[in-house]
Amino acid sequence: MRKITVIGTGYVGLVSGTCFAEIGNHVTCCDIDQTKINKLKQGIIPIYEPGLEETVARNVAEERLYFTTDIPSAIREADIIYIAVGTPMSVTGAADLRYVTEVAKTIGENLNAYKVIVNKSTVPVGTGRLVQRVVQSYLSDTTQTFDVVSNPEFLREGSALRDCMNMERAVIGATSDKAAQWIADLHAPFQTDILITSLESAEMIKYASNTFLATKISFINAVANICERVGADVTEVAKGMGMDSRIGSRFLQAGIGYGGSCFPKDTHALVHIADSVGYDFHLMKSVIRTNDEQREVVVEKVRQVLGPLKGRQLSVLGLAFKPNTDDMRDAPSLQIIPALLRKGARVKAFDPIASKEAVVHFGDKIEYCTRLEETIQGAEAILILTEWDEIKQLDLDRVKELVQAPVIIDGRNCFSLEEARAHGFIYHSIGRPVVE
Ligand code: NAD
C-alpha cells in the first residue's frame, strides 16, 4: 500500500485526507498552522463539517490518519504527496499561487525517492508545469525523479465528507502513465468514474465546472429579476426549466447570489486566465456583475418596504454563505450587512454555526444572538440570508408575536407565498410576487 501525505489541512486537505484513510490508506495530513494541528491531535476539528469529527476519530484510533507540522519528514515518508493549500484571489483577480510554490519548493528540497505529486488545489492552467519546474529546481538529490498530476477536488462544504466518499468522478490529469495509474488505483475503492486527461485539461475542468455552476446561478437570478417585473414566479419557472433533462433542476434556486471560498475566486481567476491569453471572457464578467448586483437587490427591497433605514431594527437570519458550514468567505452577508449599517440600520444577527466567524468581520457593529427568538424580538423587518433548516422551519405564528412589524425580506425563498399570506406577513422574496 502506498503512503499518502496531504499538505494543507483545510476544508479540502482534511476531508480528502480523511477519506483516503477511510478507504484503508496510511495518511499524514500536514499544515504550517501549529494551532490547527494541535487541535486535530486532540480530536478537535477546526472546521464545521457534518460527520467529520467521528470519521477523523475512527481513522486516528485505527492508526491510519496522522497529523503533523513536520512537513519535510512527511514528504520523505510518502509515495504520493497531495498539495491542498489555499489559492486565494489576489488583487488582480488571479489565483495567488504563493502557497503552492512554497510547498513545491519544500517537496523539491526533501525528495528522496520517486514520488507522485498531486495538485488538489484549484489552480490556473499551467500550474502543474510550474510545480514540476519548482520541484526540479530545488531537488537536493538531482538523481531523483517524480511526476506531477492534477486531481482537482469537487466536494461541497456542508456535505464534503459525503461528496468525497461518493464522488461522481475523479479527474486525473497526468504526464506519465505510471503516475496516472497510481492515482487511478488510489481511487478504485471509491468506485467512481475515472477520467484521465492531460494536466492542462484537468486544471481547466475544475475552473470550467465551477464557473458553469456560477453561470447557472447568475442566470436564474437574472431571470428572477425579470420575473418580478412581469408577474411570473421564478420557482415555477425554474421547476419547469429543470424538468428538461438537458437543463437539470440543480443550481437553479434564485436568491442573493453565490458566495463562499470557491465560486467568487474561481470566476475571477478564469476571467484572468482568459485575459492572459487574449480572450475577453465577457460572458463570465457578466456572471460576476450579476452576482454582485444581486446582493444590492435585497438591500433595495428592505429600503423599499421600510423607507429610510436610519435607526430601524433589523433581524438578519443566516450569515454563512450557505447552510451547514461556518465558512464566511465571500458570504453575501459580508456585503449586505455593511450596506444596511451604512444606511443607519441597527442589526441583530443569528447563525447556528458561523456567528463566531462573523465576529471577525463585523466586530461590535452588530448584535449577535444565540437563539432565533432573541434575534427576531422587536424586529421591524426580518432579513433571511442563509436557508438553514431551522430558519426554514420557523413557526410564523410565533414569529408574528415577537416582531414589531410582520415584514420578511427573504433572500432565499424559504417560505411559500401561501404560508406568508396565511400568517399575515408582508413578504418580499426573490423573483416571486410580493405578498402584502
Ligand atoms: P483552506 O484555507 O481551508 O486550507 C488551506 C490550508 O493550507 C490552511 O490550513 C493553511 O494553513 C495551509 N497551508 C498554507 N500554506 C501551507 C504550507 N506552505 N504548508 C502547509 N500548509 C499550508 O482552503 P480550502 O478551502 O481547503 O481550499 C484548498 C484548495 O482547494 C483551494 O485551491 C480551493 O480553491 C480548492 N477547493 C476548495 C473547496 C472548498 O469547498 N473549500 C472545494 C474544492 C476545491
Automatic annotation (TrEMBL):
Keywords from the named record: NAD, Oxidoreductase
Signal peptide: none
Organism encoding this protein: Marinicrinis sediminis
Family the entry assigns: Belongs to the UDP-glucose/GDP-mannose dehydrogenase family.
Reactions the enzyme catalyzes: UDP-alpha-D-glucose + 2 NAD(+) + H2O = UDP-alpha-D-glucuronate + 2 NADH + 3 H(+)
Gene Ontology MF annotations: oxidoreductase activity
Class of the enzyme per the UniProt entry, highest EC level: oxidoreductase
SUPFAM superfamilies to which the protein is assigned, alphabetical: 6-phosphogluconate dehydrogenase C-terminal domain-like (SSF48179), NAD(P)-binding Rossmann-fold domains (SSF51735), UDP-glucose/GDP-mannose dehydrogenase C-terminal domain (SSF52413)
Pathway listed: Nucleotide-sugar biosynthesis; UDP-alpha-D-glucuronate biosynthesis; UDP-alpha-D-glucuronate from UDP-alpha-D-glucose: step 1/1
Listed SMART domains: UDPG_MGDP_dh_C
EC number(s) from the headed UniProt entry: 1.1.1.22
Key word Transmembrane helix present: no
Domain called UDP-glucose/GDP-mannose dehydrogenase C-terminal: residue spans: 315-417
Protein name, UniProt field: UDP-glucose 6-dehydrogenase
Superkingdom, natural source: Bacteria
